[in-house]
Amino acid sequence: MTTIRVEETPHLTAILRLADTALVLSHRLSEWCGHAPMLEEDLALANIALDLLGQARLLYQHAAELEGKGRTEDDYAYLRDAPQFRNYLIAELPRGDFAFTIVRQTLFSAYFHPFWRRAANSTDRTLAAVAAKAEKELAYHLRHAGAWLVRLGDGTEESHRRTREALDALWPYTGEFFEVDAVSRAMIEAGVLPDPEALRPNFEETVDRLLREAGLPRPPAVWMQSGGLRGVHTEHLGHMLAVMQHLQRAYPGARW
Amino acid sequence: MYTQALNERIDGPRVVEDPEKLAAFQARIDAEEKIEPNDWMPEAYRRTLVRQISQHAHSEVVGMLPEGNWLTRAPTLKRKAALLAKIQDEGGHGLYLYAAAETLGVSREELYEQLLSGKAKYSSIFNYPTLTWADIGCIGWLVDGAAIMNQIPLCRTSYGPYARAMIRICKEESFHQRQGYEIMLALCRGTPEQKAMAQDALNRWWWPALMMFGPPDSESVHTEQSMRWKIKRFTNDELRQKFVDATVPQAHYLGLTIPDPELRYDEATGHWRYGPIDWDEFKRVIAGFGPCNRERLAARRKAHEEGRWVREAAIAHAEKRRMRERAQRLAAE
User: What residue spans define the domains of chain A?
Assistant: First the structure.
């Protein structure tokens, strides 16, 4: 089977954005497995990757129901090209060093923990069910990444420097969390998605608290990167998909 | 995964043990009592266990690498999740095996240094490459399958902490084995290309899997004493035969051919008789000249080196925190 063409509706797009983000970040985290700074982190990062992969699968299954064309979770993951992916850019950036991974996971979880808590009241009942599960998982992810952020920020000179560099590199990718386009506007109005503006105080409070504890300065307001939600990605996603989709693309139609 | 009986001398000074204590110890073993960390034990018993448990732990940790090679290329989301969970299990096995070894008075850092320096051994099987997706199936089916044969008897091994760790490990390994077989089944029921992929993987993994049980009994240096102490309960050759007997019918069910022209069923004994194993290859791989020895150790060293600043930061932070808390306590007094 070749690349699929998904007929996106606002609702389907909204679900794919969440599913793609979870899958892509899970993939990046899984790249650590066997290469982490200590065995405990091999386990923890794999655990977080598994949670996100589980969320992605439920969301793709939901997407398949919404689209109603008999597709499977794998069709969305393996048979779309980069421009059809709708993930936030922050998820696709290469794994970097441990500081980069921890800062990304902290920023991501600081947004997505309150996101899922609110989404548990979604009018989309399947999404609400996914949210109820994801909220608990994200609470743990935030605790884990936040504790590491503090250790690294308040550790040695080197760890402080690396963490600060990672923060500066990643901060411009947090703007996308709060981007609202016509698709998300319609879904917010329909009560499917929470309004990101309502999540901002919670996000900022979490980030400020952790940065304070870590002894890290809050990055200045900068130009925010954008594009993932409409399929305009960084150079990195194409490479990631080339690897991830390799078998499905090389053996079209095979069952695994 | 994965213990392996490796022919390796145990270093350290020879200790002359008190014969009365030795006799009492052997009596406890004979009575099937478990030996616990604070109990008296002969130095050679302790060393044998440290060597075996740490080799086992190292094997788990190195074993994460060949499978990790396919994590980013797993062909479906379900397979990706199962593989990630499996590798995570292996890391967990490593962790509690290191903990079991620590009850014998040797630290995880010390053991890990022995792995990184190349002094300690790990299972030879992980020095083979994973070249196609079918290798992931074969590792589950054959490598975990062989590991289970080795490890089920270890659930009754005489050292308590090791035996208890093995109970949990075996449960997880048996799940991995079934997952691996299921991958093979899907491939063998798939397209001709997939089936060829499965056969090719079996051709490459069969003999290394048989070598996982260690050298033949006639050449094994540890077996006799380990059997007397009930660290081991079956010999290498006994376990290897059990594995062959269990696995050959599974291969037939898949419609695959075992790459051994001498393989035949012995009606009289009910065993599958296999051809000669290339022990030169085994010795070569153990000695460091397998296809991936260099890469595997290099990957472990790289992760360890690149993680150094992280571990230092964690220690520095813990220390700073302790000092701050102490200062606060003093100020309050």
Answer: 10-250
- The H helix count followed by the E strand count for chain A is 11, 0
Using a CB-CB distance cutoff of 8 angstroms, which residues of chain A are in contact with residue B197? Answer: none
User: pLDDT by residue (tens digit) across B234-262?
Assistant: 999 999 999 999 999 999 999 999 999 99
Fold of A10-250: Ferritin (1.20.1260)
Q: Which residue of B has its CA nearest to A51?
A: B81
Q: Which residues of B touch A244 (CB under 8 A)?
A: 72-73
The two three-digit tokens of residue B119, written as one number: 């002094």
Buried b (16+ CB within 10 A) or exposed e, B127-144: bbebebbbbbbbbbbbbb
Distances (CA, A) of A125 to A59, A121, A220: 12, 8, 39
Cα of B225 to nearest chain A Cα, Å: 33
User: A20, A164, A255: best mutation site toward chain B, by most B Cβ within 10 Å?
Assistant: A255
CA angle B280, B282, B284 (to 5 degrees): 70
pLDDT band at A1 (very low <50, low <70, confident <90, very high): low
Mean pLDDT score of chain B:
93
The span from the CA of B232 to the CA of B227, in Å, is 5
- What pTM, to 2 d.p., does this model score? 0.95
Taking 90 as the threshold, does the pLDDT of residue A135 lie above it? yes
B146: distance to nearest CA of chain A, Å? 22
B24-80 pLDDT, tens digit each: 999 999 999 999 999 999 999 999 999 999 999 999 999 999 999 999 999 999 999
CA distance A165 to chain B (A): 15
- B323 in contact with A, Cβ within 8 Å: no
